[in-house]
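User: Hey, quick favor. My workstation is busy. Could you predict this chain's structure for me?
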Amino acid sequence: SSLTVLAPPGSDQFIALAIMLALLVGVIQLLLGVFKLGVIVNFLSHPVIVGFTNAAAIIIALSQVSKLFGVPMGRSEHFINDIVGMFALIGDTHLPTLAMGALAIAIMWGIKRYAPRLPGVLIAVVVTTLLSWSIGFERNASGTPEQIADPELRAVVQQGMGAAQRVNELNSQIAQKTVALKAAHKAAGNDDSGIVQMDAELALLQIDLRDAETAYNQKKTALRHLQVVRSTDASGATLAIYPADKAPQDLALDETRYRLNKLRANGFHLMGGGEVVGAIPEGLPSVQMPRFSLDALGSLLSAALVISLVGFMEAISIAKAVAARTRQRIDPNQELIGQGLANVVGSFTQAFPVSGSFSRTAVNMNSGARTGMSSVITALIVLVALLFLTPLLYHLPQAVL
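Assistant: No problem, here it is.
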C-alpha cells in the first residue's frame, strides 16, 4: 500500500520500487541487529505480544474463508468491510470448492488423531491435488463483450470493464502526479502557487479514485450473482456467451455454468470450477542489482522503517510464542540480522520485503520441527520444487491452502 501512490500496482515501476523497498528494509534491519538494537523488544509487554499474535491469527483465518467457500473477497484499506462483504456472498458458495477444503481438513484431522507420525499436511495436499486433476476441478475460459449474445448482459459487462479501466487510469495519474509534486517541492519549496494547485489536483484525483473503486466494486457485485453458459467450436474456444436462464435450447452448449471474473480492459475471465494454484514459473530467479532511485529514496525510507519495525515485531512475536512452548531463549539481534540478510539477498533476486510467517511457523511446529535446520531443509525442498516439481503443483486447490 505504501507503493500505490508512487506507481500503478503491477506495473514495472511498481515492481522495481517494491524490490528497492526490500533492499532498504533489509539494510535497516541489518543495521539494527549489528548495533544490538534488538533491545527494543523489551518494550513489548506480554499482553501486547499475545494481542498481536491472536489478532494476526484471526486475520489470517478470516482471510482464508473466502478461498474455502469459493467466493471473492475485496482488498481495501478496511479489513472489517472486506469480511462483511465476503460473508454477504456466502449464498454464492461454490460447493465443490467447499467440499475440497473440507476433505483436506478431514484428512489432516484424521491423521493427527489416528496416525500422528504420518505427515498429514503433505498427504492432504497430495490427495486433493490428485483428485483435482482427475475430476477437472479447474474449468476456466475467457471471453470478450462481442461474444455475449444478450444485449443487457453485454452492457453490464462493458460497464464493469470500463470501471476497471477507469480505476487503472486514475492509479496511473495519481502516481505521476505524486512524483511531479515531490519534484516541485524540491525545486520551489512549499509556497509556490503551482504546488498548491498540484496538491488540489492530487486530492481531487484521490476522491475520483475512491468513487471509481466504489463503482467498480458495485459492478463486480452485480456480476458475481450471474451465471453464464457458452457455445464452443471443435477446439473448445468460445463462440458465444448466454445468461444461463436465457440460453437457447436448440444450441449445443458447454455443460459447465460459468461465473464472470477478473474484468479487464480487453476482456474477462470465466470461472466454471474451483480455483487452483495454477502455473508456477519454473527454475530459479535471475540475480541482478536492484534499480536504485535517489528520487524515490525519500518516499520509500519512511515506509521501509515502518515495515522493518512491524516485520521485526511480527517475527519476534512468533519467536516468543514458540519459545514459550519449547522453553528456548531467543536473541532479538540475531532475528534482526537474519531478517535483514533475507531481505537484502532477496532484493537481488527480485523479491518483495519478507518477514516471519505465523501460519508457516505453526505448520513447521506441528510437523515436529525443533531447530533452525528445519528452515534449511524447507529451503532445499523449495529449491528442488522450483527446479523440477512446479508442474505437479498446478492442480493444487486454493481451498486446501
